[in-house]
Design brief:
Elements (H helix, E strand, L loop, with lengths): L1 H8 L2 E3 L10 E3 L9 E3 L2 E3 L2 E5 L3 E5 L12 E3 L6 E19 L3 E9 L2 E10 L3 E20 L8 E7 L9 H24 L1
Antiparallel strand pairs: 1-11, 2-12, 3-6, 4-5, 5-8, 6-7, 7-12, 8-11, 8-12, 9-10, 9-11
Length: 195
């Protein structure tokens, strides 16, 4: 029975960057050739980006603010958000978030309109935090929310999504395990009733 519950607990949970499998895809935002201000919705790498005010900022040097090289995307307003719709479903998603001063943010992970989880992040400038989530039933979008009124926009870099499902159990296997677990409980209950 412990195996049943530990299998089910893997369906939706926070993960780190090392949890992604070999088939994972990373959008580094490097050398996209976009202007500084971009109207949203905007397609990048097969995903659709929207923001609170209809503008997504892009700069090849944004990534250096977070201790990485190359490009990054940003919201266009303090306390703004960036929404990334996967135009389908992935089982794992994660992203680096930060800015060049003290900052706080949350990254929300959704399956349709259902909030799967929120990861709070913070930093002191020129650093970043990673927010990742896995859900065997799927993740359809993430939203990066700037939660610090500091006169800065929140930046996002190195979006990573699974290509193979990584360590997330296949939902059909999970249902099979659930069925075995319930059958085992019913069988054990019958034996106890006879004793």
């Amino acid at each position: 029975m412990v195996g049943l519950f530990s299998s089910l607990s893997l369906q939706a949970q926070q993960i780190g960057p090392g949890s992604f499998g070999a088939g994972s895809v990373t959008e580094t935002y490097d050398n996209l050739g976009l202007p500084f201000d971009n109207s949203t919705p905007l397609g990048i790498g097969g995903y659709t980006y929207t923001t609170d005010d209809g503008t997504l900022r892009y700069e090849d040097d944004f990534g250096t603010f977070m201790g990485t090289t190359g490009g990054a995307v940003g919201s266009d307003s303090d306390l703004g958000f960036i929404n990334i719709n996967f135009n389908g479903s992935v089982q794992q998603a994660g992203i680096q978030v930060g800015v060049d001063s003290a900052w706080t943010a949350t990254v929300d992970f959704y399956d349709g309109v259902v909030l799967l989880g929120a990861v709070p992040l913070s930093g002191n400038g020129d650093d970043n935090g990673f927010a990742g989530w896995q859900n065997a039933a799927g993740i359809t979008s993430i939203q990066i929310n700037d939660t610090a009124a500091n006169g800065k926009i929140i930046l996002a870099d190195n979006l990573i999504t699974d290509g193979s499902g990584g360590a997330v159990p296949d939902s059909s296997n999970t249902l099979l395990l659930l069925g075995f677990g319930i059958s085992g409980l019913l069988f054990a209950g019958r034996k106890l009733g006879r004793a």
